[in-house]
């Protein structure tokens, strides 16, 4: 096990920069916001922010050496996308069956939309009507290892590009069907065209039983489907919607959309923008940003940090009342408990007045 421990000076420069114009930009934060962001300069087990822990050579950072992106390099990037008055909506496009058909599907994608709305506080997030696999016209195959159906990401990205509304900052396709990017690859969790604001990702492998030989999505017969025979997706298995699946879905969706803002994989502190090579590593990541990546998002959208955390906390707690439970399927937020307590700690710092 290795702990990547950055010095306070290194983290300070990554957060603020030494350029005077960016130092001046940082000075516009309130004292409470600066105090909160600077909590990240001294990470530790009992602190709000943690250092990155690498458990094996198969983890993302040793397997994929990347240059660290500090705030200055993010801010100066001429190719990054920034929302504006004409392009300020995130669109979510469900593809194929997601959960049990009908009400549960609608509820699940609405939970995802609501979380995304709180996470990217200040932008509008809208759902597009669900489309079938046939509607996308994508290629598909049966995976030779897992014996489950997969759909081709490149075709899906082309479809989403045609669907992208004029006021979109980005459009993301979500599906419970496994994905592959090309014939030589086993699978991929997702793929995106960042400069076009288009992405697609699958939650299929976030089912705890996916890698089991008893996984219900494994095809029981040796199918050799022909191109265009989309009937193989009729009634295709989708995993039950659990609290863990919802948490993993929210984490993946916000990580991938974060990339569309130009935020690269984080190598500063434990952060939702860390890369991950496998599910165990993804589960280790927190649900939210470190201070450096949070500042990148904040300068792109211009929200108040405390208001964003309040919105996330509200999403986690809004369906907990007896009245709400009677009127809809209760939101399964048990897996969000650690994140909820973390949000309260963040707000304690942000709302504490200097005395």
TrEMBL record:
GO terms for molecular function: metal ion binding; metallopeptidase activity. It comes from the Eukaryota. SUPFAM superfamilies: Metalloproteases ('zincins'), catalytic domain. Coiled coil: none annotated. Its cofactor is Zn(2+). InterPro entries: Archaemetzincin, MetalloPept_cat_dom_sf, Pept_M54_archaemetzincn. Keywords: Hydrolase, Metal-binding, Metalloprotease, Protease, Zinc. GO terms for biological process: proteolysis. Belongs to the peptidase M54 family. Probable zinc metalloprotease. This is Archaemetzincin-2. It comes from Betta splendens. The lineage of its organism: Eukaryota, Metazoa, Chordata, Craniata, Vertebrata.
């Amino acid at each position: 096990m290795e702990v990547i421990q950055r010095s306070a000076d290194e983290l300070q420069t990554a957060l603020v920069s030494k350029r005077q114009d960016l130092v001046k930009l940082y000075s516009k934060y309130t004292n409470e916001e600066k105090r909160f962001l600077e909590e990240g300069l001294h990470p530790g087990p009992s602190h709000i922010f943690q250092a990155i822990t690498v458990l094996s050579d198969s983890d993302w950072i040793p397997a994929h050496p990347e240059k660290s992106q500090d705030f200055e390099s993010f801010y100066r990037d001429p190719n990054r996308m920034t929302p504006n008055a004409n392009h300020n909506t995130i669109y979510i496009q469900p593809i194929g069956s997601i959960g049990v058909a009908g009400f549960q599907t609608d509820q699940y994608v609405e939970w995802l939309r609501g979380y995304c709305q709180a996470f990217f506080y200040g932008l509008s997030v809208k759902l597009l009507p669900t489309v079938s696999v046939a509607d996308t016209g994508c290629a598909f195959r049966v995976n030779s290892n897992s014996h489950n159906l997969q759909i081709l990401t490149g075709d899906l990205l082309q479809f989403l590009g045609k669907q992208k509304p004029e006021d979109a900052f980005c459009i993301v396709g979500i599906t419970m069907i496994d994905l592959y990017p090309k014939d030589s690859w086993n699978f991929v969790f997702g793929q995106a065209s960042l400069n076009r604001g288009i992405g697609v990702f699958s939650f299929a492998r976030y089912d705890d039983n996916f890698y089991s030989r008893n996984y219900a999505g494994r095809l029981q017969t040796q199918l050799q489907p022909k191109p265009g025979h989309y009937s193989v997706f009729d009634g295709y298995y989708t995993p039950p919607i659990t609290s863990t699946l919802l948490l993993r879905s929210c984490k993946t969706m916000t990580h991938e959309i974060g990339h569309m803002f130009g935020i690269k994989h984080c190598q500063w502190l434990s952060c939702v923008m860390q890369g991950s090579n496998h599910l165990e590593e993804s589960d280790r990541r927190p649900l939210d940003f470190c201070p450096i990546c949070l500042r990148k998002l904040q300068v792109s959208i211009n929200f108040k940090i405390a208001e964003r955390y309040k919105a996330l906390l509200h999403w986690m707690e809004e369906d907990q009342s007896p009245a709400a439970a009677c009127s809809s399927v209760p939101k399964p937020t048990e897996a969000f408990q650690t994140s909820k307590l973390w949000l309260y700690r963040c707000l304690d710092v942000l709302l504490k007045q200097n005395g």
